[in-house]
Hints:
This is Ergothioneine biosynthesis protein EgtB. InterPro entries: CTDL_fold, DinB-like, DinB/YfiT-like, EgtB, Sulfatase_Mod_Factor_Kinase, SUMF_dom, SUMF_sf. With about 425 residues, the protein is α+β, with helices and mostly antiparallel strands. It folds into two domains: about 15-180, Four Helix Bundle (Hemerythrin (Met), subunit A), CATH 1.20.120; about 205-420, paralog of FGE (formylglycine-generating enzyme) (Alpha-Beta Complex). The protein is built from ten helices and 14 strands. A four-stranded mixed beta sheet has the order 12-11-10-13. Strands 3-6-14 form a three-stranded antiparallel beta sheet, with helices on one face. A three-stranded antiparallel beta sheet has the order 7-8-9, with no helix packed on it. Helix 1 runs parallel beside helix 6, helix 3 (about 65-85) runs parallel beside helix 5 (about 125-145) and helix 3 packs antiparallel against helix 6. The N and C termini lie far apart (about 50 Å). Fe (ii) ion binds near residues 73, 103 and 164.
Amino acid sequence: xxxxxxxxxxxxxxxxxxxxxxxxxxxxxxxxxxxxxxxxxxxxxxxxxxxxxxxxxxxxxxxxxxxxxxxxxxxxxxxxxxxxxxxxxxxxxxxxxxxxxxxxxxxxxxxxxxxxxxxxxxxxxxxxxxxxxxxxxxxxxxxxxxxxxxxxxxxxxxxxxxxxxxxxxxxxxxxxxxxxxxxxxxxxxxxxxxxxxxxxxxxxxxxxxxxxxxxxxxxxxxxxxxxxxxxxxxxxxxxxxxxxxxxxxxxxxxxxxxxxxxxxxxxxxxxxxxxxxxxxxxxxxxxxxxxxxxxxxxxxxxxxxxxxxxxxxxxxxxxxxxxxxxxxxxxxxxxxxxxxxxxxxxxxxxxxxxxxxxxxxxxxxxxxxxxxxxxxxxxxxxxxxxxxxxxxxxxxxxxxxxxxxxxxxxxxxxxxxxxxx
Length: 421
Ligand SMILES: [Fe+2]
């Protein structure tokens, strides 16, 4: 039975629906690994296909990266951590690339400054494509030729490399949408794109009784190190909203002066509202008194029944206060999601929680450069749970901990509410 399924769907399907599904068991064969590798690498190029060379170069803000840079960086990751240490006689494609395409791995050497990635006009997109092909051939050859001992060493590096590339596949879409939103002609990534169908439930709350639960990754299948160790937590009693907060809910918040009422906001949040001039979620435009928003399909009317998206933690927190409710903690979210209480937990918007991004009890980052993957970011950020419409299929899970700074809103971020009796 193949470990990887690749679905080829029409371009107008949501990006996540046509992504490869990555599920590799401990018994996966070399052919399984090569199939998984090729499926993920192909998905990156599929997401790039609608974009011109000019699209691939633009960097619309320091937090976003050019598409060309993403395509090269995920390739450097395999070159740096898989091929250079383990492929005898591997020829590095270009000695200058590690400086250009290392992101934040201090242990892996010096790197170009992030806010200036949009200035890297060379290598051009064709050279980056050739870089990808060079590394792909070497990875396939390494997996095929490795003896059993080396193959066992390669598998965990391959696995994190593939999940890493899937993370960047989501960032490619969030970053290009931000770039398109700066363009007065508001280009469509895919004019046939539509928001995925939601469960569309009424605003009902599910009861979560007080109890001790285990959260975190249980050791079955891949996870990032920040999802463990699994540990016991006291949760509830709490009532958690089955559905996501919608655009219609948000328009009521706006009409009630939500963005003009300082008592609804955290101090830093109110400062952000003033500094950024926020009056609505990201990518919303008011045209002749009606609200529109930019999506992958271009500019269209705001649908009040769809989940609200592109809001910061500060906005989510202010909305919850206005509603007389709270944001869930990440433990409340995980326990409720595992219990099947949450509609649209995955595949629409990442959901802000009120939990700061901190290490779980007993967490230790791994030694070496790959130990820099998560642990060093565990301060000043907030946890988001679930997954978004841009998350590749098979990438999300109940224990997944996404994290962003509280002012960020270019990701697909929304919320659901809880009520503590
Ligand atoms: Fe990365």
